[in-house]
Amino acid sequence: MSPSQREKLSGFDRLPDDAIVPDPVAAEILSISVWTLRRNNLVPARQISKRRRGRRVGDLRAVVRGTEPKFA
């Protein structure tokens, strides 16, 4: 995990629900590997640009809480 990803992980509680985090950070929050995250697709990826994607913070929080994420 890169230093910038560790920063995002440490500041996860302060991020707004609409923020997008990269897959390694999302996998760390869910305590699973990146490959499991991509294979099981617990939280759908959001396309940020042509070559970048990530997971929405609000959806990750919902999965951690055990509630239904809003996939809008």
How are the secondary structure elements laid out?
Blueprint: H1 3-10, E1 20-21, H2 23-30, H3 34-40, E2 45-47, E3 53-56, H4 57-65
Antiparallel strand pairs: 1-3, 2-3
Portion in beta strands:
5-15%
Describe the sheet with the most strands: 3 strands, antiparallel
Overall geometry: globular
Proportion of residues in helical segments: 40-55%
User: Radius of gyration over alpha carbons?
Assistant: 11 Å
Uncertain segments are none
The largest beta-sheet arranges its strands as 1-3-2
N-to-C series of helices and strands: HEHHEEH
Provide the residue-averaged pLDDT.
Answer: 84
Using DSSP, what is the number of strands? 3
Please explain how this structure is put together.
The chain has 72 residues and is of the alpha+beta class. 44% of the residues lie in helices and 12% in strands. The chain is built from four helices and three strands. Strands 1-3-2 form a three-stranded antiparallel beta sheet. A hairpin with a 5-residue loop joins strand 2 and strand 3. Helix 2 crosses helix 3. 18% of the residues are buried.
